Amino acid sequence: MKFSKYYRALFRAFSLVLFLAACQPKEEVKQVSFEHHIIEAENFSDSSNWSTKDYYTGVSAMADNAEPDSNFVSYTFHLSNAGEYRIGVMAASRSYPVENAKLTFDINNKRVGELQVKNSRALIWTDFVPVQIADTGNVTLKIRSENPQNAKIYIDQIVLTTDPDFQPKGF
User: Fold this and answer.
1) To 5 degrees, how large is the angle CA 8–CA 9–CA 12?
2) DSSP tag of 109
3) Model confidence pLDDT, tens digit, residues 63-94
4) Under 8 Å between Cβ of 143 and 74
């Protein structure tokens, strides 16, 4: 009988500890969801002085020599949220070295950013640049190539993401 009183008291104490733990306010877990858009470059919706070209990774979009105002490729897609995004491209340059070659980015005809194209004949991911996007819904991303004479820029993929740690796979 003495043995069972001990276990009953222990059970009550344990139950009280569980009850008090359950009554403690819980830390709210914030759900984080990131928006990613991975676009195949050859799937453009409109272009001027760009063309598709077979490249060793498949089909890519290629910027032909032209003035930046008449040299663009655009993509229309749905953007769920406004805010800060990062944009990067898998790109290569045909003429090595390419100096001062850059891509500029517009969303719905508003300049949101630019990045330098790395000196490489092989497709590699550029550094990601932060861009602020105010629009939502169907948006148009327009990319312009500002490259030196006789230089060609190939783009294989474009990534637009809200994830600050996102690292694309491949090359």
Assistant:
1) 85
2) T
3) 766 566 678 888 888 888 889 999 999 888 76
4) yes
Task: Read off the pTM.
Answer: 0.72
Q: How far is CA 9 from CA 2, 5, 13, 19, 23, in A?
A: 11, 6, 6, 15, 21
The beta strand positions in the chain, using DSSP E, are: 36-40, 46-48, 50-55, 58-63, 72-79, 83-93, 102-107, 110-116, 124-125, 129-133, 137-146, 153-161
The Cα–Cα gap between 159 and 30 comes to 25
CA distances from 48 to 17, 52, 63 (A): 71, 12, 9
Contacts of 44 (CB under 8 A, 6+ apart): 50, 61, 73, 74, 75
Contact 168, 88 (CB under 8 A): yes
